[in-house]
Specification:
This protein is an alpha+beta fold. It has helices at residues 16-24, 39-42, 64-75, 82-100, 109-135, 148-161, 172-182, 185-193, and strands spanning 4-9, 30-34, 53-56, 59-62. Helix content is 53%, strand content 10%. It has a 4-stranded mixed β-sheet with strand order 2-1-3-4, with helices on one face. β1, α1 (16-24) and β2 (30-34) form a beta-alpha-beta unit. The longest helix is centred in the middle third of the chain and has 27 residues, at 109-135. The protein binds glutathione. Residues 13-14, 43, 50-52, 63-65 line the site of glutathione. Pfam families: GST_C_3, GST_N. This is glutathione transferase. Keywords: Transferase.
Length: 199
């Protein structure tokens, strides 16, 4: 049996999509959650110095989306054609553009909140209108069955709700998609049993 060891911090962030894909197929893996206090000592030993990383049978792989894309393929969570996969990747990349530029860190707590609020106000409408239009009245972003793009939307929007509780609330179809993902039995089980973290 393939041995998987996922290493990330003790929050959902960029690892939750990977955890969802493992949960979807009930795949066993080690879910290592590094404390911030442990990180400076660990960082030099991690390829490219960032988390998450996934060890597969002792070999380390980095970049959350490269890892998720590989696991999604194994789990049957990709499109049926190359063009469907291109559309899935485009959804994933649109979400990633948004979160990569998000002002996560800022030493001044007041300024941080202000910057995050402004970022969401200025940038979320374009992303959300695009996603809502891509989804339309379909059940999933691409094709007629769930893919890792649908999982990514649920994971990332949950994280952003921590910063803005009304995030995407005006888009009924995007909210319905979250419910659809969360009602998949193996995902529902993961949501019940996963360790509590604020975001
Ligand atoms: N594009 C990378 C980004 C990785 C990344 O930004 N990781 C952050 C946590 S979300 C990190 O390791 N921060 C600690 C550091 O850079 O020292 C991915 O998706 O894996």
């Amino acid at each position: 049996m393939t041995k998987y060891k996922l290493t990330y911090f003790n929050f959902k962030g960029r690892a939750e999509l990977i955890r969802y894909i493992f949960a979807y197929k009930n795949t066993e893996y080690e879910d290592v959650r590094v404390e911030f206090s442990e990180w400076p000592a660990l960082k030099p030993s991690i390829p490219y110095g960032q988390l998450p990383v996934l060890e597969i049978d002792g070999v380390t792989y980095h970049q959350s989306l490269a890892i998720a894309r590989y696991l999604a393929k194994q789990a049957g969570l990709i499109g049926k054609t190359d063009l469907e996969n291109a559309r899935i990747d485009a959804i994933i990349d649109s979400i990633d553009d948004f979160i990569s530029a998000f002002p996560w860190t800022e030493p001044d707590e007041n300024l941080k909140k202000q910057k995050q609020d402004e970022y969401i106000k200025n940038n979320a409408p374009r992303l959300l209108e695009g996603l809502a239009k891509s989804l339309g009245d379909k059940s999933y972003f691409v094709g007629d069955s769930v893919t890792w793009a649908d999982f990514h939307w649920d994971c990332i929007s949950e994280g952003l709700e921590h910063f803005d509780p009304n995030f995407a609330k005006e888009h009924a179809n995007l909210q319905a998609l979250k419910k659809r993902v969360r009602s998949i039995p193996t995902i529902a089980t993961w949501l019940e049993k996963r360790p509590f973290t604020e975001h």
